[in-house]
Amino acid sequence: SLPPPTLERLPVYVRVLDDLARHGETTASSSRVAELAGVAPAQVRKDLSRLGTYGTRGVGYDVADLAAHVRRALRLSDAHRVIVVGAGHLGQAVARYGGLRARGFEVVALTDVDPAVVGRSVDGVLVRHEDDLAEVVASTGATLAVLAVPPGAAQGTLDALAAAGVVSVLSFVPGRLTVPDGMAVRVVDVAAELQILSFYASSP
Amino acid sequence: SLPPPTLERLPVYVRVLDDLARHGETTASSSRVAELAGVAPAQVRKDLSRLGTYGTRGVGYDVADLAAHVRRALRLSDAHRVIVVGAGHLGQAVARYGGLRARGFEVVALTDVDPAVVGRSVDGVLVRHEDDLAEVVASTGATLAVLAVPPGAAQGTLDALAAAGVVSVLSFVPGRLTVPDGMAVRVVDVAAELQILSFYASSP
Ligand SMILES: NC(=O)c1ccc[n+]([C@@H]2O[C@H](COP(=O)([O-])OP(=O)(O)OC[C@H]3O[C@@H](n4cnc5c(N)ncnc54)[C@H](O)[C@@H]3O)[C@@H](O)[C@H]2O)c1
Ligand SMILES: NC(=O)c1ccc[n+]([C@@H]2O[C@H](COP(=O)([O-])OP(=O)(O)OC[C@H]3O[C@@H](n4cnc5c(N)ncnc54)[C@H](O)[C@@H]3O)[C@@H](O)[C@H]2O)c1
After folding, report:
1. Do A192 and B12 lie within an 8 Å CB cutoff?
2. Average pLDDT of adjacent 10-residue blocks, chain A of 204 residues
3. Neighbour tally for A19: CB within 10 Å
4. Helix, strand, or coil (residue B53)
5. Cβ-contact B53, B33 below 8 angstroms
6. What ligand has the least distance to the C-alpha of A84?
7. Which of A12, A195, A199, A202 is the best substitution to test chain B (most B C-beta atoms within 10 A)?
């Protein structure tokens, strides 16, 4: 099966290949894909050979073919339903993000505890009360959640998500979390990204 | 020197070690660090040995010592100044994020083009007009930028950042961008993270 670093580059390749197809480019070399993906060409060839796909010398890869291959490897099938927990600045930005629907992710609900926010809608999606989380998950069929609550509320909402049957969470709250059994949590952290950027900026 | 996957895990180790120190844990085993970092214990040992640090059998690592080692490897020195381009939902969430200041990143300005937003302040930081970007960068000494503008404005603002001398950008706009020479751009994409989560959820 695929090593995690390769797997984690596949969404970038899908995005790049979809972009090439939109611009009418039907074939692409590994260096063309590499340039748009921000990855070294040799790494692209290595990753794609792990999927069992090879370009034709002098021509490159067939864009539509390769995109289908990469989607299959990522198991991108039908749409996934997403719930955004915390409808503040970050939660609203995520719920409105056009890149989600474009890749088969539909935000079906947001939850919050603030009476000024509950009952309103964000881009047509209703904000429900956090207390109704289990019922919202059951009625919408959400399988993925994005966690955008203040640090103090993170553990409680994570446990409530596990109890409601959501097993995959993308968290923006980087403090210490005890991850419930059987749940997968990925963390996005702007500070960590900036630390990596500043490392490369300081390298000669 | 450090392979990128190792380097990109270092900010997580710094966060975990700081967290252990805050909780009064002065030593930690590689599996303790691994558990909090969401990384396999063998990977932690391998990464740390690349920095030339080894734990003591049966005791583990000295937390304060290791944190200093990892910070040095990441070249985390003085504070870095950050400008947030686009003061909408996402830009405001980033500007208010407590995790930045805690790790030596100070948001010194936001820019926008919307007259309803320009001149207001977010968490005490003034929103300037995008037209003043060069002057704002010069007067604040910002070296890093976070890009949180609509897709149509991304290329123009990226070019303006390069012209103003900012060489490191964290972009939330995943469309095709032509990266100016000498600039490093990292992309955060919630959709890509959700694709990876849904892959692991579908793996037996
Ligand atoms: N990791 C990152 O890079 C990053 C970047 C920006 C913000 N953040 C973090 O994301 C979180 C959200 O940031 P924000 O700017 O949107 O904050 P915000 O205050 O605007 O929004 C938080 C929302 O969560 C709601 N909330 C509180 N308790 C809740 C609960 N138990 N259940 C559901 N909703 C609850 C609040 O009512 C509020 O609407 C914060 O923890 C912040 O530190 C992380
Ligand atoms: N990558 C991801 O995971 C992710 C997640 C959420 C949002 N997004 C993207 O982030 C961007 C911001 O999202 P949002 O919800 O905050 O949108 P928003 O509309 O609330 O904010 C965008 C802001 O940018 C400002 N702006 C427009 N042109 C500008 C320019 N030339 N210079 C400076 N500012 C300018 C607007 O006036 C507005 O205030 C969008 O492109 C969105 O698609 C990405």
Report:
1. yes
2. 89 93 93 92 93 87 93 86 97 96 94 98 96 96 97 97 97 91 94 94 78
3. 16
4. coil
5. no
6. 1
7. A195
The two most distant CA atoms of chain A are separated, in Å, by 61
* B162-182 per-residue burial string, b: 16 or more CB within 10 A, e: under 16: bebebbbbbbbbbeebebbee
Domains and CATH numbers, chain A: 4-73 (1.10.10.10), 80-191 (3.40.50.720)
Phi-psi region of A134 (alpha: psi -120 to 50; beta: other; left: phi over 0): alpha
Q: Which of residues 148-177 of B touch A (CB under 8 A)?
A: 148, 151, 167-170, 174-176
CA distances from B20 to A12, B23, B25, B29, B32 (A): 34, 5, 5, 11, 10
pLDDT for B87-131, tens place per residue?
999 999 999 999 999 889 999 999 999 999 999 999 999 999 999
Q: Which residue has the CA at smallest separation from atom 38 of ligand 2?
A: B88
| Contact partners, residue A57, CB within 8 Å, separation at least 6 | none
